[in-house]
Amino acid sequence: MVKKSNKAKEPKKKEKEKKKVEAKKSSKKPPVKKVKGPKKVVKKEIKGKERVEAKKVKRKSPAKKAKPKKEAVKKEVKEKKPPVKKEVKEKKKAEPKEEKEVKKVEKVKKEKKIEKIKFHEKKDISDVLKLRKKKPRFMRQELPKLKRLKDKWRRPRGIDSKKQEGKRGKGKLPKIGYKKPTISREIHPLGFYPVLVHNIKELKLINPKGEAAIIARVIGRKKRNEIIKSANKLKVTILNPRKGEI
Question: Of 52, 148, 149, 193, which one is least surrounded by beta carbons within 10 A?
């Protein structure tokens, strides 16, 4: 194959470029010169010679009209009077206001009557106390060794605990054999068996020789007085007297 030369293409390219340039020139508009302002011709004569200089005179903003000054008003000169001394008023000291005594109306609470308890004496129970056996001190395991332990009974639960096995010298364990006799059990220091009371019906069921009443904490002053009155008639002792009842 024989390669074609590029010489034939060159004149065609030049013709196309010329046409593009002519088209651009025809499309372009003639440049417009910006006129900033009118030119003023000033003639100067220097030693018989005339020289023309064109000076560009910038447009100036129209001059503001000067406001007419106000004519000074002539003030009439008043005759000077002698200076008058101003009387200095003494400021009155603020007197303390009298505090109005406000009478507070205090609500007077009516004092409720307190019934007195007649029967509150100690009973001799020396024979009963003799029946009680002296119990040993039940200490928890390793109490004398460790300071952090408190003196409260805890049952030993260790697999290899010698105290749990009941070995000698390791301390006593609580057993049913240390139980008190039924006569001396649950007895009050005054020598009576306590019974909780809520009303007069429960009070009448009490045996005054061996039993005594404990009035419930919930009961108020009015109902308490009624129970104390009936207890005095039945000769029943009350184990929990309040202030002013004895």
Answer: 148
**Residue 142 resides in a domain:** yes
Instruction: Give the global pTM.
Output: 0.48
d(CA 138, CA 175): 11
- The number of angstroms, rounded, from the C-alpha of 20 to the middle of its chain's C-alpha atoms is 87
Helices assigned H by DSSP within 131-243: 162-165, 200-204, 221-234
Paired residues of 48 in beta bridges: none
Residue 230, SS3 per DSSP: helix
In the three-class reduction of DSSP (H, G, I as helix; E, B as strand; rest coil), residue 140 is classed as coil
Coil, helix or strand at residue 164? helix
Question: For residue 161, what pLDDT band results from cuts at 50, 70 and 90?
Answer: very high
List pLDDT tens digits, range 55-82: 444 455 555 555 555 554 445 545 555 5
* Residue 162 domain boundaries: 133-179
